[in-house]
Design a protein that fits this description.
By secondary structure, this protein is an alpha+beta fold. The protein is built from five helices and five strands.
Length: 171
């Protein structure tokens, strides 16, 4: 990845986090949807399919008054401010990540006005699994166990295979 791309992605992520923390001045909780598309070209037909489907899923599962949808060098993302209980929202987010057919392709982060980012571990939930080998995704990412091309191939093939099943729950 070129340095310009890395800098653009980092700048976009910083802008996203600034939006989150600004919203936490007015709301108790902020839910953030991000797409786990690997590599530099994060906005494409595959990630868009997952993003649009995830927005629909969130509208069905959460009480939503406002969704801020963005497209940036960091990919598609949505910010959903809320005054609902952050713990309950995090549990619902974990359930979607773990059970919805596209759940492994997204992150649903929950920020609390007082506690900051809520982790899966604080709810006694396991870390997310790698797309490819089902080991701890953080370890695979840190060790670069899989190439970006392998991860992209997995993501895109997964979307193609599961496009018609996107409303199903998988366990």
């Amino acid at each position: 990845m070129k340095n310009e791309n890395i800098n653009e992605i980092l700048s976009a992520r910083e802008e996203k986090h600034q939006q989150i923390f600004n919203l936490l001045n007015d709301y108790k909780t902020v839910v953030v949807l991000s797409i786990n598309y690997p590599g530099p070209n994060k906005c494409n037909d595959y990630s868009k399919e997952v993003f649009v489907s995830a927005i629909d899923k969130i509208k069905k599962e959460f009480t939503v008054d406002k969704i801020i949808q963005k497209e940036s060098y960091a990919g598609y993302y949505a910010i959903i401010p809320s005054n609902e209980n952050s713990g309950l929202l995090k549990l619902k987010a974990i359930q979607i990540e773990d059970e919805w057919v596209y759940g492994r392709l997204i992150d649903l982060d929950v920020y609390d006005q007082q506690m900051g980012l809520l982790s899966r571990n604080s709810f006694h939930k396991e870390n997310r699994k790698c797309f490819i080998c089902n080991l701890d995704a953080k370890i695979c990412g840190r060790n670069r166990t899989h190439t970006v091309d392998e991860l992209i191939d997995f993501f895109e093939n997964y979307v193609i295979k599961n496009k018609e099943r996107k409303w199903k729950i998988v366990k």
